């Protein structure tokens, strides 16, 4: 009986303490509280930039495509909000159009700066599309200075309270 009580106490102690283990850094992932993976972005002029190059700054990352009206509206509204409010966040816009000229024409029609615009010309066949599960809908992310995702699918009103 003495050994049974000892075993029960030991098991109970292990169960209670196992939930209190904390990680020192967030894991890599695609949801709030996780570190956003480092992705390589291709600018409209062909230059390549790593998302990690923005470390130390707040970044709004927005995935969109010209054929998806909702994502296009989100791209315009987030860009304009950040530009008009002198936000300390950098805007990174990633088009998943397979034709870079379509993305460029769409940006011109939407009257957007091309400085922070990138294009993934493999579109829905790209690893970026697959890894971020964009087949479920295009998304936007607010990334903090350390690369941790703080929010997803923000509106300008959301950004007003988050920044």
Structure description:
Strands 5-4-3-6-7 form a 5-stranded mixed beta sheet, covered by helices on one side. The chain has a two-stranded antiparallel sheet with strand order 1-2. The chain is elongated. It has a single domain, classed as Glutaredoxin (3-Layer(aba) Sandwich), CATH 3.40.30. The chain has helices spanning 2-18, 69-84, 100-109, 127-131, 156-162, and strands at 40-42, 48-50, 58-64, 89-95, 117-119, 140-143, 149-152. With 163 residues, it is an alpha/beta fold.
Average the pLDDT over all residues and give the rounded result: 89
Main pleated sheet: 5 strands, mixed
The tally of strands reads: 7
**Computed CA radius of gyration, to the nearest angstrom:** 21 Å
The level 1 CATH classification is Alpha Beta
Cα end-to-end separation: 60 Å
The CATH homologous superfamily name equals Glutaredoxin
Number of helices: 5
Poorly predicted regions are none
Structural class: alpha/beta
User: How much β-strand is present in the residues?
Assistant: 15-25%
Helix content: 25-40%
Taken together, the total number of domains comes to 1
In order across it, which strands form the biggest sheet?
5-4-3-6-7
Judging from the principal axes of the Cα atoms, what is the shape?
elongated
CATH overall fold name: Glutaredoxin
Order of helices and strands: HEEEHEHEHEEH
CATH architecture identity: 3-Layer(aba) Sandwich
